[in-house]
Specification:
With 186 residues, this protein is of the alpha/beta class. It has helices spanning 23-33, 41-49, 53-59, 62-77, 94-103, 113-116, 120-123, 135-145, 163-181; strands spanning 13-16, 37-40, 82-85, 105-110, 154-157. The structure holds shikimate-3-phosphate.
Length: 186
């Protein structure tokens, strides 16, 4: 371990993946299992502006949202021992990707299009990026976004798994990695 490098056991965990794959619910569950604080980046931004994301997009625009998203994520990544859920578009920004990968352990929550499309009606009202798009356009966006999530440390296939199962998988794989890389507790 290099001097000043955060031990693996203390690094924050970042969850990435397309909108609606369960980053927030799974993140909360992982945080509880590891006795850590949970940070939802969209919620942080919403509370700073005092309005939901869809209104932020309407009033100040997506570009301003993306700037705030970047500064909020970079600040969160500098903290230790957090579980952080970032929005599905965050990894489009290279600076966010690089910071998350350098400072934290990044888990990609991978859900197939077949399973994701069953959730669409639950998501559409609160996700400005989906609004005004037909199913083919959403499908295209879904597939276009997948390559940005390929930069990660660990991938979890979430099809047919419930929240608790995904959270358990993440916790187990973290514990395995900690024991292998820091057998004496870091
Ligand atoms: C977005 C995803 C949303 C939110 C915003 C933009 C995106 O977060 O950040 O609506 O571009 O994919 P979730 O992935 O938590 O839905």
């Amino acid at each position: 371990m290099r001097i000043n490098e955060v031990p693996l056991r203390e690094k924050s965990i970042v969850l990435i993946g397309f909108m609606g794959v369960g980053k927030t619910s799974i993140g909360k569950s992982v945080a509880k299992k590891l006795y850590r604080d949970f940070i939802d980046i969209d919620e942080e931004i919403e509370s700073k502006y005092g309005m939901p994301t869809s209104e932020i997009f309407q009033t100040i625009g997506e570009q301003a949202f993306r700037e705030k998203e970047k500064t909020t994520i970079i600040k969160a990544c500098k903290q230790k021992l957090k579980i952080i859920s970032v929005g599905g578009g965050a990894f489009l920004q290279e600076e966010i990707r690089n910071t998350c990968l350098a400072e934290c352990i990044v888990f990609f929550l991978d859900l197939s299009w077949e399973h994701w499309q069953e959730r669409i009606s639950l998501l559409i009202d609160s996700r400005p990026v989906l609004q005004g798009k037909n199913i083919d356009e959403i499908k295209e966006l879904f597939h276009k976004r997948q390559p940005i999530y390929e930069k990660h440390h660990s991938r979890v296939e979430t099809d047919n798994l419930i929240i608790e199962e995904v959270a358990d998988f993440i916790v187990d794989s973290l514990k395995t990695a900690w024991d292998i890389h820091e057998p004496n507790g870091g």
